[in-house]
Amino acid sequence: MATARNTNRPLSPHLQIWKWGPNMLVSILHRVTGTGMATVGVAVLLWWLGALAAGPDAYAKFLDLLTVQSGRPNIAGYILGIGLTLSFFQHLMSGIRHFVMDAGAAFELKANKSFAILTMVVSVVLTAALWGYLSYSDLTAPPKSAPIQVEAK
Fold this sequence. Notes:
Layout lengths: L21 H33 L1 H11 L8 H28 L6 H32 L13
Helix pairs in contact: 1-2, 1-3, 1-4, 3-4
């Protein structure tokens, strides 16, 4: 049977007591990005596979929701793509941080804080670099002009 709590001992501190820090944010982001990729990523993958299996009309509807006529992503496509990419890189960088800490390194407060900030900065930089690379050809291509229509009389 459990005994009564000793009132001479303090209660365990909670979020109101602890000073918020980058290491706490990275820990929560790791969980959120993992869950987000698992739910949103799998839902989009299953939707894509279902549209692919359902035929050309269903696949065209899937593409219409995420792309424009030229095949480039529309606003929803960019939000989904950049969101999943940022989640992937944040989760990857946080996983590398956990791996290094599991090896026994970066437990000092300054190193831990710097490493936590670095994971967030690197994930944003990698996301921007990837989407910059994917969009580079669209940014440097000359504008496409519509062919001149000649009316037949």
